[in-house]
Design goal:
Distance between the termini: 55 Å
Largest sheet: 7 strands, mixed
Mean pLDDT: 86
Strand order of the largest sheet: 2-1-3-4-5-6-7
Number of helices: 15
Structural class: alpha/beta
Shape: flat
Helix content: 25-40%
Low-confidence stretches: none
Radius of gyration: 26 Å
Amino acid sequence: MVKQQGLVNLVYGLRAYFDDPVVRQVGLITSISFDISVNQIFPTLIFGRTLHIISDPVKFDSRALLRYLHAESIQLLDAVPSYMQAVLNEVAPQQPANALRYLLIGGEKIEQRLLESVFGQLGSAVEIVNIYGLTEISDINILGVIRAADVGQPITVGRPLQNNRIYILDTFDQPQPVGIAGEVCVSGESVSRGYLFRPELTAERFVVCPFEDGEIMVRTGDLGRWRPDGTVEILGRIDHQVKVRGFRIEIGEIEHALAAHPAVADACVALHSNAHTGDQLLVGYVVAHAEQESAAQGADLRAFLRGTLPEYMIPGTFVFLESLPLTPNGKLDRRALPLPDETTLALDQAFVAPSTETERVIAGIWSAVLKIERVGIHTSFFALGGHSLLATQIMSRLRDAFAIELPLGVLFDTPTVAGLAQRIESARPAHRTSAPAITRVPRDQRQPLSFAQQRLWFLDQLEPGSAV
């Protein structure tokens, strides 16, 4: 239950960027159902700027997005790190001069690789505003600017927003000194009223601040530490809540859904970095009932989970174990869970090699984007570790390879090489029509004006004799 005063505090905390005279055009690429959209909508309108609600076909096509930013002179954009990295992975290193001045990045940890991509491809004049916060505390509570000269330095989220107070506390609610990790807690104007109809959860996360009389403090569940310069560095989660491509995910929710499958005796879920792509990958670890092992296949489990979970919460791959590793105390030893390798990344079905030229081209593109050696024509793109951001790269390369326009949804409808090959073959004849012949027009009569000439004529009628 976010309070209006928390939103007002957020808007004025962003004033330095949205009220900068250089900033006139602001691009919105996040869904308006995602809380970080308020970072763009309200400051843009309150400070009299123009808000560009960028359409899905543009924001899911890397080159189209950069063309749009250039053509519309967008000076400020807000994005999740993994999305921005996917965009820059798909475009040439040298981009045309752009007007982008501020890039607000939040929702996930920023890696050095992204800084190098942004400053190398969008120019050193761009300033990255690293933002940190939770919906429970009106979205943004700490922010800091990263410039080209900061590449290679420790990445921090900056300093607290005005009217907010940040505490780094140990398990006894004692403040931690500089450099020592603890839970990030927040009090001040941005704190919301709690969770609607969830008094138990509200009492757990919204607690009385031990340092301010009458103040409520929010436990974020994030691990952080103060740096000597007074900025905050976020180190990760203190519980099993993780963020994947900007989505906050409770691992326990996935584990609960997975354990409901009749063939599953025990299960857990962990977040790993995909060794091939560098992306974050949810991995499901499953112990099947002995008599039902054949029913506990990756494809079956994914189909089952789709009945209760959104796509971004479904593990990209599954590892089947005889038993889950335990600590000497009998607790799950998450550090002992085996890392998935290329063989577990997917092969829920027998490998079938591409047999046509179209299938071979598609498989080659998948192999390059997913960074795996071989791709079978019946293996699901998502079973191989693919996700929506990588899907945009796949479709961009398919358009180039086959010179046809395919919507992004095609890959979700037919996520196999064989299925895509059929869709491409059926679409290609419609695009093979030759251009009409150019015929000579006689010059002994008046010719229609071009659009540019019509524009000049109109301007001359509107303002006769002007220099235009």
